[in-house]
Amino acid sequence: MTVTKWNVRAGAYYDSVVLMQLQRGLLGLSGVVDAGVVMATQANRDLLAANNLLPDSISANPDDLLIVVKAKDDSSATEAIGKADELLARRKSSTVSEDFRPRSLSGAVKQLPEANWVLISVPGRYAAGVAREALELNKHVFLYSDNVSIEDEIALKKTAREKGLLVMGPDCGTAIINGIGLGFANRVRRGGIGVVGASGTGTQAVTTYIHALGAGISHAIGTGGRDLKSEVGAITAHQALDVLARDIDTKVIVLVSKPPSDEVAMKLLTSAQATGKLIVVDFIGYSPPSRSLGNLHFAASLSEAAGMATSLAEEQILHNESSNYQSPIANHYLRGLFSGGTLAYETTLSLQALLSPFFSNTPIKESQRLIDPLRSQGHTIVDLGDEFFMVGRLHPMIDNDLRIRRLRQEADDQDVGLILLDVVLGEGAHPDPASELAPVINEIKDKRPEIEVVVIVVGTDTDPQNLSLQVEQLRAAGAIIYPSVDAAIDFVARLFHQAPRSEDTPISLAAFSNPLAAINVGLESFYDSLVSQGAQAVHVEWRPPAGGNEKLASLLARMKK
Amino acid sequence: MTVTKWNVRAGAYYDSVVLMQLQRGLLGLSGVVDAGVVMATQANRDLLAANNLLPDSISANPDDLLIVVKAKDDSSATEAIGKADELLARRKSSTVSEDFRPRSLSGAVKQLPEANWVLISVPGRYAAGVAREALELNKHVFLYSDNVSIEDEIALKKTAREKGLLVMGPDCGTAIINGIGLGFANRVRRGGIGVVGASGTGTQAVTTYIHALGAGISHAIGTGGRDLKSEVGAITAHQALDVLARDIDTKVIVLVSKPPSDEVAMKLLTSAQATGKLIVVDFIGYSPPSRSLGNLHFAASLSEAAGMATSLAEEQILHNESSNYQSPIANHYLRGLFSGGTLAYETTLSLQALLSPFFSNTPIKESQRLIDPLRSQGHTIVDLGDEFFMVGRLHPMIDNDLRIRRLRQEADDQDVGLILLDVVLGEGAHPDPASELAPVINEIKDKRPEIEVVVIVVGTDTDPQNLSLQVEQLRAAGAIIYPSVDAAIDFVARLFHQAPRSEDTPISLAAFSNPLAAINVGLESFYDSLVSQGAQAVHVEWRPPAGGNEKLASLLARMKK
Q1: What is the predicted pLDDT for the residue at B99?
Q2: Domain boundaries A113-315, corresponding CATH code
Q3: How many Å apart are CA A91 and CA B165, to the nearest integer?
Q4: pTM
Q5: Which fold has domain B172-325?
């Protein structure tokens, strides 16, 4: 028969390392069978219950500390509970040179004026306040703490963006800046691959695999898991991309995240395209628009992202396209008139990720459905073989009439800059489609020479239509020919490529090229880790305002104003 | 000033080739500026309107034929309308040897008893009836017609499945059986790659690219675009996979479709896995669970699918796993206890596509959300670093207590057959995680030796924890170690691999190995194409029941019963 005893301490602040050490201390006492030392949140109470460590009669608030001991007899339990204070004190005395430590951020800055980064790992409810202070002191922030509200995150990131500072996090587990790991980070070779990671272990896995493949990391910038949500709008990811794009030592950039919202993804991919650098994208679980789009390469897993980045870096492929190139039709619309449903769908899948506003009669998302299949809007892909058009009419692979009429209709629209067609050869199809389509393409190019006409021709050298004759006729009419959707989209994506523009205050590259110097607020182990890596660092002997008494703290804050 | 005249013909049936030819005939007459010959559906009326060919005063039903002529003067317009009958008759007489043609399916079967396929391309409203008749005559069906109801599709496919017959379609554009293209099909080399295509041009593109890469096609089986919807449940795709799996000439199978519903995808991938053959999957726009899972390889585009299939076929990789292998834990549950959120997410992404029922506290789909994060259900992945667990507690990369308790909890569950962990090394993490985890793994393996413990270890050779020492300790405790999620999932997928089971009546391989002989009902051009490819074929001089008069037809049908 075991005996369970407990002790509740109201509203006091305890470092989570202290709590872990207290629990271990209790478990080490004679007669103790199990012990739990937790803040009394519902989740933690449920966890205690799952371990048979929650007596029915405990009443405690989420801010209270709960110490529970299960022992083999009453006296052991009582004795253990009684030793809690002694164990807490023992931990205290083990920390040396505490007297020299600053007790505030501003004190730490006086001690280490060259500090360019502040690492924050205090409990969530205090973290935003510390981060705000760090930004006021013009420091970049690595915000490890979780349980920070999204409103605080947005406010902090907007302030940071205005000042040309980075806020990595909240809930940012990992970063590597100028060779020094912040938070959880693996020791990896330095090299030409930069990482922008909205996920901590994602960044750890990718940097680890890159190291194993013999390549190295320039910088790995964390954003926190919520950065790519619509509300935050990937503020940090955009800043990180920009700074890595300007960093000459970064040759390839890996972008790792859970799938962002469509709008955020589109903006981020557009920015990534505009950097002109080689970018490997792993939006884990995102349907890539294709395997690659210009300078963007899409990976299906963390290990593949590492592999792709390593080979791109090794091959030293130079992406020749100037990032300031803008084609004359970049601000016009694309219209795709397809006979093949799947070709239309594959094209739609790629383009809807890059072009906006985008519509189709066979859309990927309902919000992109063309209101009237007979009238294009914005960028449009129409599947002319859709059932809607097919009552009493031959398929557009056999009868070109519908497509020819629509071709003329699109060319009359002054907003149109590119028309995309497919021509599918083979058994059953029109015996000579180019003979009917080429004259219309010719007519369009005569009337509006600026319009690009791109044709995807699917067929074999043994098809009855004579593939090369078909291609020749279309090319002579002024069309650009591709054999597959992938190849055509790659071309189209470059034409509609937008020159980069950013109103953000750029981040000075100094924070990335100067030796890393940092102030640590929170988990002492992060400070130890910085020092062991040879970085200059100061640890703040932080306590929450008013010792964690929130009523008193808010009173003090009000008095300050 | 142009003049528009029109003529409405009520409720009669016209072949769409006839309509196209009539329109072209009218356009060729002197004084005619434009002409439209369409069934008077709303879509077609809108199309006429878009071409300024729809006078306000026309009243017609969707089943009516609408002939509209725009001419430069009144007399030309009147004359053209008057010539419609003559033009229709002219088309008639151009077809030779009509007298020898059967006028019914059963008549055609008498003429070509060895026919194993029936091609149907009559208008949608008649198509299901013809298909039903073909199945009654024990013929496989290639159903090109669109605008067939989904109820008819389901009924036809269920009948076919019971009889060991295939219904490709409705709206099936493409198939290649034993070297002969049906419908729209490119002329491609024969070879070892089979295709199951839910999309016509998808199949055309893939087979074309395979041909261009020097490889060839065994058979390409179409399913129709709706086959992979939940309502139909991929009946045809499952049959097609099964028949290609049994066909010894097919070495690699390509599966092409728009993304199916999750449930259909899971069943189809499970069947595909169970075939033991190398399978390339291109569910266009689907987020692949990873680049490959055992014998399944995921492509991101049609051209990539062709490339992958070609290299797999060339490399002659022999997939050694017997398709009847079943591991002792195949009917147990997997439990993943992760410290890394992204590793948990990547794992969840892969496994939720393969295992059911599946749950997680950080799910991809809300329906897979774990009700209580403290208690696993079915197959479960838990991210122990989620905010929920983190109030006043150190991250599980630093403090192993939470995970150790959960490890014991899972091992006590008799339904559990595999436990998956991650161990992330590096700065900031626990200095020796294996020293705490290995003893628990040991304890579990002692108690329940049948449980597999798989550990993903992420770290570098320069990390402070000593990577190889960590791996050694874990391995000595009985764990199986992998460096990445991909590699671990590949192993796990094989263990949970289900032996194939099917209650379908298998399709006789004879229909695929005997020379193709077919009956064609509908578009005559498909018959011409069969003959030009050297296939035996009979064209049915088909007319709708009661000449297209539906009231009379339903009366006749009722009298038959």
Answers
A1: 60
A2: 3.40.50.261
A3: 77
A4: 0.76
A5: Rossmann fold (3.40.50)
